[in-house]
Amino acid sequence: MKKKIIILGVIILNSTLGIFMLPSNHSKVIDPQETISPSLTANSTTNSTTNSTTNKTGNNAADESKGQNKSEFAADRDGESIDFDAKRAMEYLQKLCQIGTRISGSEGMKKQRELLKAHFEKYGAKVTFQEFEAKQKSRPDKVKLANMIIQWFPDQKRRILFCGHYDTRPIAHEERNHKDWSKPFISANDGTSTVAFFMELAHHMKKLKIKIGIDFVLFDAEEYVFEKERDKYFLGSEYFAQDYRKNKPEYVYAAGVLLDLFAHKNPRFPVEGHSWESAARIVQGIWQEASLQKVKAFVAVEGQPIQDDHIALNRVGIPTIDIIDFDYKHWHKLSDLPEQCSGETMKDVANVLLEWVKKVGN
Ligand SMILES: [Zn+2]
User: Which H or E run includes 100?
Assistant: First the structure.
């Protein structure tokens, strides 16, 4: 993603009441008595704006968690809980990184696509590629690109979109020494961890008892960027969003969740600014689920708005949040390697997202 620093303010999640509060310089009004259903009705997915005076309150699900620890929480859901395999998720991450760089249009990307198609089809997904071409400003020629769409329960007309990018950046721009910029950049947590996360989730998707469909969408060319100030980011998500708007599919995305820079050890996910602005209801549902499960990485503090793949989706009416720790210190450095990542982090995030999916998808 692209860096943009503006600090908007602070959201406080009252962990006892599970209520989101904004500081007084925001115009949002809090009504602690009002509760919301976690379901994503058409109305509930309507975008909100920071200028809105609509009350923003959460349900009081966190109340139910009083006295519960994490294992008791899991025990409550016996028979339904998903046993995300943290070790296997890390093995998938290693396997992807062993391909080497996976720059858009490259041989590495082609290899990755073949591996992923075989993997997701093996576990019962419907896999399609959305192919297109684009010309990056700094490049002499067009490049062939493809977003990868992995569908679970493809007959469902109401769907949730989980997404990330699967290209690796051609240049490690945050390395101090310019000589290091062109060394192979593996990008373990930047994009790749999302792909590995989806690969592990593939083992469990068919077992979910839900009445909605789920798509994993992997965007190409999120950062096919050679010259930072000149080249365009987000080629894949922008194409995907425009196609969704123009060629209306027969299904609708009720919600979207973007995962980026999320799988390292001890991450911290403040509420990304655009997510709060465009999809507050989804933020509330997920951060409250995290609070209930005592997953501390999700902190109910409003972070900086970040330019990322969710912007294009929100623009075409898919309310999408970004789960991201932009303080990841290996960002765009050669040290963004698998050893920075954690299967346990992925497992925590999976448990939060899948419980949220069960709540909104039934
Ligand atoms: Zn990146």
Answer: none
The pairing of beta strand 320-324 with beta strand 252-260: parallel
Contact 184, 101 (CB under 8 A): yes
This prediction has a pTM of 0.83
How far apart are the CA of 333 and the centre of ligand 1, in A?
9
C-alpha 189 to ligand 1 mean position (Å): 9
pLDDT in tens, 215-234: 999 999 999 999 999 999 99
279: domain CATH number? 3.40.630.10
Query: What domain range is 294 assigned to?
Result: 75-360
79 alpha carbon – ligand 1 mean position (Å) = 38
Ligand 1 mean position to 169 CA, how many Å? 6
C-alpha span between 297 and 268 (Å, rounded): 5
Identity of the amino acid at 119: H
Q: How many residues does the chain have?
A: 362
Q: Is residue 337 part of a domain?
A: yes
How many other CB atoms are found less than 10 A from the CB of residue 49? 9
User: Quick check: is 115 in a domain?
Assistant: yes
Tell me how many domains the chain contains: 1
Q: Phi/psi zone of residue 156: left (φ > 0), alpha (ψ -120 to 50 degrees), beta?
A: beta
Only one residue has tokens 């000589």, namely 179
47: in domain: no
Tens of pLDDT along 307-350? 999 999 999 999 999 999 999 999 999 999 999 999 999 999 99
